[in-house]
Amino acid sequence: MDQEILSSLYSIKTLLYFFVTISAANLCLGALRFGFGIRNDMRETSGKVFQMMVDDYLATNKLDELVRHCDEQLAKRPNDAYALWYLGKARFIQKDFHAARLVLSKLLEIEPTWTKSHVQPMLDAIAAAESRGSETAANPV
Fold it and tell me: What is the CATH number of the domain that holds 59?
């Protein structure tokens, strides 16, 4: 009888260890999900702030600040498509067509789906501006 009780207690102890381990694992996973959720929210917010700033620089024609801000963003995130797009746009407006084309080429590697909607119209505008002797067309995009 004592052996049966000890065996039952051992089984209960094993089940308790199992439930404690599962509970701890769930707690850790929940904390990780929460942490990743916060990090994703911060990235999204950071992206919106970046876009608002560069839109303001464009609207107020502060192209040097725009270029500086894009360069800072690209130093942190070299494949940031939005930073590349705005940098290419700023270089186009500054009539630095070679630099604009280089930036847009990198953007094509990162975001090939942007070709038709964003990159190709800008490359066409660069070609048109170069063919007119460096006179820029109206803001293409």
Answer: 1.25.40.10
